[in-house]
């Protein structure tokens, strides 16, 4: 065996992230590590790459046990890792990014030999079919290309055990196919591959063997031939899961959200949203699909008043809105932000305080300068039971709840108003399957009750499962709008890659 | 033309419109200031008033006649330059490149005002330049110290205090060992140790970097004041480290105007040149510099490929402290010959401003330090020439220039992204 992990255990404060996990992978083999969010996949790979020290267990490379004290030792044993969140310096160019840590130098003081380094990268990218401009700045590259840079980093270090942590999360279906071609090529050349995902169809397609992880423990190892998507889902979650969402037929009502000629800039001042035209009617869910970083963040921030509109108009039920989040919220807009701890909750505040963030300044929660803590507590207690928020008490710091329960606090608060429009950005990012089902059910309930819903998500499956109409965003533009019936994976995937 | 402009405005986006309006405002300011300068030149100064700048020292080998400038004419030239720049800015208001012209306008105006204040006198331009460089030099060292720390991702607010303590250590060490060079070595070593102290606080104990630096500054002021009044004043022979003299470079130091400023200094001046060049090359062209920048931008990324983030930060702070200590020693063995209370006089903070103004790169810091050094030397020169401007105004000049430069000219520059955040190793 090229690599074995034996009985790896890692305890974080309050979480047993890995509980005696054992996996193995040989040369030329593709092992998929499947598990839902929080199952402990990344932790296991961080141990393998020397970033974390395990509490128990050993790493065996070529039948020799190792204890990696730092990433340098793991790299020396041939382990290369493409992290879930890319590990790149935005203001470096590709050559510097790839060679950093094993630079090509001349002379005793370590002067960089850029031409030699560049030549080496050109050679590598030709050998493995990884098309990258060695002089491009990382911050100017789309995520798909950044991922290639990450793979190049591993190949440049002669890694023959390659770990890819959720690599498809940032890709279109077609880009994922291209990645699979590269992965298969590397495996054929003898590289041992560990492919991490929580997407069932992908692991069945690419893997030679699939090891399923749940709550830090190995549930079992199967081959694609002897399993199915539903069997894998059951292993992954520990119970039967419904892969689709139930929904009623609702006739859609009048236009609630109308966006005309919208242009928005990002933090660097570049145009991030270009001339977007979109309408969302009462009683329908419009899903905005697209690869991360194509202007979705800025689009949603403009809709919710968090970012200035550069040109164009946004109207909600006929009222044109400006950069004023409270006014927008009071118009009946519910916002589920993509980063719950940045834009949705205040860490360090209690569940109750977070629950009234939108209304603390009004009756019954306050009058004059006085805050009525009893009223706040009563409302929060009701919300905790209505929305099944698992928290020790309403006075618990919201930051200490699990991601799923934090999201429920947000949903409880936002849906607690008189809602006309829901703007949900990555509403289930990083959540476990149980919480995903719950949030989806709540969103569909709102739709059935005649609310207009806009869901922006980079998870194509989520958009396909929820939306009545699907708009695809690419490079700041809406490149196509399809009714759900015509939105196949392939068609939406092509649009996500900018092919109209 | 007006019609076209109007049409433009309706199709422009909000950000473009903002840039456009800012450009127009800037153009209007240039025009107003330019007109004012022309007006002053034409009507407010005696037509025949001259300012005769000396461009060589009396003892110089090459002697040149004074550079006599008519005060009114200088104002008018400055005014016309202001009007031209206003015109350029007005024709394409949002073009960013015109913004650079702001420094040109500021410079000619400052020079005109200076010439006006000095009207009828014979000030020494060459003296002004020499003083500019000697004031700039410690700011350069402070700025380089700041760069070393921030490039690694740690803020060093404590440079001011390290300079002060480094100066005291230099003076006492030099006096005890009877040799200014030994004093300098002691100043540098104490700076290095103080840098390491700051590193331990910031890196090991995650003390907020602003607070750690501020505490160091306050402690340095207290400790040195105490030492001065209780020890150095009682035993003055502990505060006589000796001076380091100038080493003129043959021929080059005789170039009129710039020779004495650039090529007739102590070895600190030449050390400054060498340090600027070495640091510029080291940061951008060596393995060490690449790793330093990576750690300052994204320490986690650096760690995942086996770079020891903390070690790089410790070393960078040690070097930062050593360079700050070197700046402190300069104040003692070149400027005054002894330690004085509060002699760092904000140099550490101005060095940090120079780092920002210079875009976190050594050559930029040198340029910025010259601007600040000029303000200081103008202050001291004007005082000695005896112009009738109240001394308070003169003595706040360097700080006012610093504020204007940092707040107005720099705009948005981007420093290393991880500055100020502790890095947690798991
Ligand atoms: N550095 C850390 N400190 C504390 N808890 C952590 C840390 N990293 C991960 N965890 C926790 O460990 C569990 C497993 O996380 P992770 O390995 O990231 O899961 P996965 O990659 O499968 O989604 C989660 O409950 C997560 O909150
Ligand atoms: Mg993960």
CATH superfamily (homologous) name of the largest domain in chain A? P-loop containing nucleotide triphosphate hydrolases
Along the chain, the helix and strand elements of chain B come as HHEEHHHHHHEHEHHHHHHH
Strand segment tally of chain A: 24
Percent of residues in helices of chain A: 25-40%
End-to-end separation of chain A? 46 Å
Strand order of the biggest β-sheet of chain B: 1-2
Q: Provide the CATH architecture of the largest domain in chain A.
A: 3-Layer(aba) Sandwich
Pairing-aware structural class of the strands and helices of chain A?
A: alpha/beta
Mean pLDDT of chain A: 93
- Could you tell me the radius of gyration of chain A in angstroms? 24 Å
Using the coordinates shown, work out and report the CATH topology of the largest domain in chain B.
Answer: ABC transporter involved in vitamin B12 uptake, BtuC
Provide the gyration radius of chain B in Å: 24 Å
Topology of this protein?
The complex is a heterodimer of chains A (about 500) and B (about 425).
Chain A: E1 3-12, E2 15-25, E3 30-34, H1 41-48, E4 56-61, E5 64-66, H2 71-76, E6 79-82, H3 94-99, E7 105-106, E8 111-112, H4 114-127, H5 143-156, E9 161-165, H6 173-188, E10 192-197, H7 200-206, E11 209-214, E12 217-222, H8 229-237, E13 255-265, E14 271-281, E15 285-289, H9 296-303, E16 311-316, E17 319-320, H10 325-330, E18 333-336, H11 340-344, H12 351-355, E19 366-367, E20 370-371, H13 373-386, H14 403-415, E21 421-425, H15 433-448, E22 452-456, H16 460-466, E23 469-474, E24 477-483, H17 489-496
Parallel strand pairs in A: 3-10, 3-11, 6-9, 9-10, 15-22, 15-23, 18-21, 21-22
Antiparallel strand pairs in A: 1-2, 1-4, 4-5, 7-8, 11-12, 13-14, 13-16, 16-17, 19-20, 23-24
Helix pairs in contact in A: 14-15
Chain B: H1 2-11, H2 14-44, E1 50-53, E2 67-70, H3 71-91, H4 101-117, H5 125-151, H6 159-177, H7 180-204, H8 209-232, E3 247-248, H9 259-263, E4 264-265, H10 267-285, H11 287-297, H12 299-304, H13 309-336, H14 347-357, H15 362-385, H16 391-409
